[in-house]
Design a protein that fits this description.
about 0% strand, rod-shaped
Length: about 70
């Protein structure tokens, strides 16, 4: 019995896995960029004041360091 090309699922799987891999790669890049941007925004005291409440819970700040 000889198999025809229609019976071979390998090309379909390869195409599907390539599209999934592309989506995963794009998602990882987007998440890495968002992580970097969020860390950059937290470097500014005004943004940190609006985004987090941790600074208020940390106790007495060191002298000479702006809150």
């Amino acid at each position: 019995m000889s198999k025809t090309n229609n019976d071979n699922p390998e090309p379909k799987f390869t195409a599907w896995s390539d599209s999934v891999e592309r989506r995963l790669r794009r998602g990882i890049v987007i998440l890495a960029v968002l992580l970097c941007l969020s860390q950059l925004v937290l470097q500014f005291p005004a943004a940190r004041y609006w985004l987090t409440t941790t600074d208020e819970s940390e106790g007495v700040p060191f002298p000479g360091i702006a809150p």
